[in-house]
Amino acid sequence: DTAVSQTPKYLVTQMGNDKSIKCEQNLGHDTMYWYKQDSKKFLKIMFSYNNKELIINETVPNRFSPKSPDKAHLNLHINSLELGDSAVYFCASGHGTGNYEQYFGPGTRLTVT
Amino acid sequence: GESVGLHLPTLSVQEGDNSIINCAYSNSASDYFIWYKQESGKGPQFIIDIRSNMDKRQGQRVTVLLNKTVKHLSLQIAATQPGDSAVYFCAENWNNNAGNMLTFGGGTRLMVKP
To answer: How far is CA A92 from each of CA A18, A35, B9, B88, rounded to the nearest angstrom?
Structure first.
């Protein structure tokens, strides 16, 4: 199926640990994104990559490091996890120009204890 | 319900009635707007979009209205069904010189009573 996929779906970990979330899209899009959705459902962009290049970094702590090995993948690595990092993280992809619609993955619920 | 700030307002409607979800957007330079539907445990799903040179667009059972004068967007759902129960987000697109960026509103929860 053509889609945006993320792994894992759920991630429970302790403070101070380092974890990664993977994202893949097979829609042929040039641009990929990471969003954070808090407990109040507020959805905020974190990063945007176009053809493996970082184009938007919305004042996210440098503990968060996105990596794009190719334009179909955008992974998110988080160092030294904190309680406030608990949220649902969504990956999305889109054309980036012209048609601005973004297609979202199913989300990764991160719980930091 | 009106979707502003960080709270999550709720709109409760009877099955078969029409629903209207409102959104106030922030940037007068925004050139494109989208409505997304997010069901529990899932990612946001595209419903309908509209460009800033239009004031109305219709889809299947849904209509989006854009009022640029007051920076207001609304989503109308005709004959609301239980499957329409979800959180609805409006999003505006604008170019901040780094690239095109979607900024999401706070969301409105739609509950459909059978």
So the answer is: 22, 8, 25, 17
